[in-house]
Amino acid sequence: MISATNMLTSTAVSAESSRQVVAVLEAVTKVYQMGEAQVRALAGVTVAFERGGFYAIMGASGSGKSTMLNLLGCLDRPTSGRYLLEGQDVAVLDDNALSEFRLRHLGFIFQSFNLIPQLTVSENIELPLYYLDWDANESAARVEEMAARVGLADRLEHRPAELSGGEQQRVAIARALASDPSILLADEPTGNLDSATSKQIMALLSELNEQGKTVLMVTHEPDLAAYASRRLHMQDGLIDRIEETSA
Amino acid sequence: MRQAKLLKNIRLGIKTLLLHKLRSFLTMMGVVFGVGSVVAMLAVGEGASKEALEEIRKLGSTNIIINSVKPIEDDSGSQRSPFSVVMFGLLYEDERRAQETFDAIERTVPVKIVRKEGRLGERKLDLRIMGTTADWFDLVRRRLIAGRSLTPRDGRKRAGVTVLTEYGARRLLATERTIGQSLRIGGEYYEVVGIVQSESGQEGSIQTPDKKVDAYIPVEVARERYGDFRTEISAGSLLREAVELHQLIVQVDAIENVETVANGLERMLEGYHKRNDYVISVPLALLRQAEATKRTFNIVLGSIAGISLLVGGIGIMNIMLASVTERTREIGIRRAIGAKRRQIIGQFLIETVVLSTAGGLIGVTIGLLIPWLITQLAGMPTVVTPYSIVLAVGISMTVGIVFGLYPARHAANLDPIEALRHE
Predict the structure, then answer these.
(1) Is the domain of B90 the same as that of B129?
(2) A chain contacts of residue B334, beta-carbon cutoff 8 Å
(3) Which of A75, A240, B159, B189 has CA atoms 20 to 30 A from the CA of A92?
(4) Looking at the predicted structure, is the pLDDT value of residue A3 above 80?
(5) Helix or strand or coil: residue B195?
(6) Would you state the pLDDT for residue A79?
(7) How far does A229 lie from chain B, in Å, by closest CA?
């Protein structure tokens, strides 16, 4: 077990280590204004994520794990501190640049799948490529490749509503993979699935991790967290401890 | 590549709109009726004013027309003896004076109307004869059917020649072969030298008293042979009047001088005529006035149509705001994936513009149909000008952009995290 502060000193950001480190939070705080009261969701988190790692972020509700995932996902900016993603301090970027970062470097997998209901499976998978301005033929080929990778090559023309939960989540994974991001952010990816399907999805995530994707997963189930090589336990807006399993 | 992308976006927009067919259709209705009313109203307005303008334009924009009118006070004079002669109207002198006074006058054409009994072969009729000069035919540009028209030489030589109108020829049963024969008018003999087309349906003519004229003779001859008196028995009373010229057409050399000459003529005639026995009409002034009226009319119609388009636009905005709320989650998903704000704006704007443009096109169809029906059923003339269609479609697209912008910006400014949480 390594304490969070030790973690910082051991992975101090240097040019040489940035190849292995994909994302770094440095003394990041996030304060929400709730009417009169100020809520400190993150109270100065410092942590580095290695490229190719499989991280589980755990904690009770209100511990700050969702806030951290939103920050890591460039959906939000820290109140103070630095967030280096691929060596770039994203805390200072404007909305456009943040969008561009999400598009190129991050893939989201949500608990409720979040597919767009009026689009077909292939159109859903194509979405990031559409915003990346890919050529129609190239993106069609890419969509097929991604669908095949998650085992849904025969469902391309279906609507999300016609698929089972597990299939929908696989579509979401295919969509997250389409732009070949370095980090996959999964927010309770199996929260809406039965245990058998959950295992399939977790197996798929592990497989992707083995193929080189960094996976950051928020979960509160120890069973699922067991898939991860590192488990970050959060409490009161801070990383309480980091648990490591030797792979 | 860019075009392909735009086309794709439009296709996606249409697809999204078709998910809620009834809603999209109803939303479109505001624009449909707005645009329909713009096109239809402009067509009706245009049709109404076109006739009037055409009529005025026929008078010739460089012409000033002075007509003789019988002064009203003479009619009501109770002490008037039944044998007295009413003398009024334009004088031969007036024509000469006008020519001498104004350099800008290119030429003047006198018109004198004579009513006499005419006889051609065995046929005897009351004829309306117009004495005028060769310039008349130049001015009215009336097509010659046979023979020749009057020449200046006829006037100078006081030649007893006459040119029949098509109308007169028909009444007298005259044909081409009549040319060369003699026509007796009120005891005087004339050689028929030509036949010209009557006024109906001819372009570029002057409003003339010759609609019901049977024949033309040189004005000098008319004056010499018939004088200026006219006696008529009507409704049991004897009417005696003396008119030298019934009409004087003054052609001015340039449009810029028309007003000056008209004002000058007015002053000149005022000086020589004690009574108000003439009327000056300036087609150019009438034209300007008619055009001003038309503009006012168009502004009124335009405002009404504009209000209906505004209502249509607000309808679109309302529905798009509802749609944005309904699709908050979709917006969150797109933003999380990496869509930029302007791409979200673009997506929603395309939907509203597709909606309003489709409405605009349907509206144009209705706008074409309504004037057609009006013409068919009510017999009113309507004119659909291409500019009104371009205007209407342009306005409908603008409505889509203007009223789509707020909902689209609203969508783009949603916080992605909040939007994703939205149920």
Answers:
(1) yes
(2) 116, 127, 131
(3) A240
(4) no
(5) strand
(6) 92
(7) 26
pLDDT tens by residue, A153-210: 999 999 999 999 999 999 999 999 999 999 999 999 998 899 999 999 999 999 999 9
Three-class SS state of B240? strand
- Are residues B194 and B303 located together in one domain of the fold? no
Could you tell me if residue A34 is inside a domain? no
Residues of A in contact with B329 (CB under 8 A): 114
- B85 and B196 fall within a common domain: yes
One domain for residues B169 and B129? yes
Which of B253, B276, B299 marks a domain boundary? Answer: B276
CA-closest candidate to residue B280, choices B63, B37, B53, B2:
B63
* Count: domains in chain B: 2
For B422, phi then psi, to 5°, come to -60, 135
Contacts of B420 in chain A (CB under 8 A): 110, 114
Contacts of B332 in chain A (CB under 8 A): 114
Domain carrying residue A170? 51-77+94-244
> What is the value of ipTM here, to two decimals?
0.90
Q: What is the pLDDT of residues B313-351, one digit of tens each?
A: 888 899 989 999 999 999 999 999 999 999 999 999 999
8 Å CB contact between B221 and B159: yes
B63 falls within a domain: no
Residue pLDDT, tens place only, B186-243: 888 999 999 988 765 444 444 555 567 889 999 989 888 888 877 766 666 677 788 8
The answer to whether residue B149 sits within a structural domain is yes
Are B218 and B344 within one domain?
Answer: no
A6 pLDDT band, cuts 50/70/90, is very low
B329: tokens are: 């989650």
Q: Are B34 and B153 within one domain?
A: no
- pLDDT of A142 over the 70 cut: yes
Among B1, B337, B351, pick the best mutation site for testing chain A contact (most A Cβ within 10 A). Answer: B337
Domain total for chain A?
1
Structure tokens at B44: 């009706």
**pLDDT per position as a tens digit, A7-41:** 444 444 444 455 588 999 999 999 988 888 888 89
CA atoms within 13 Å, Cβ hemisphere of B33: 13
Strands (E) in chain A, as ranges, are 21-34, 37-50, 54-59, 80-85, 88-89, 106-109, 183-187, 214-218, 230-235, 238-244
Question: Could B337 and A76 be called an inter-chain contact, meaning their C-beta atoms sit closer than 8 Å?
Answer: no
Average pLDDT, chain B: 85
Residue after which a domain boundary falls, among B276, B300, B319: B276
Asked if B191 and B249 sit in the same domain, the reply is yes
Tokens of B266: 């007015």
In a domain, A194, yes or no: yes
Rounded Cα–Cα distance for residues B271 and B250 (Å): 18
Q: How far is A224 from chain B (nearest CA, A)?
A: 23
How much is the average pLDDT of B270-278? Answer: 86
CATH number at residue A175: 3.40.50.300
| Domain extent at residue B153 | 70-276
Two structure tokens written together for B49 = 């004013």
Residue B377 lies in a domain: yes
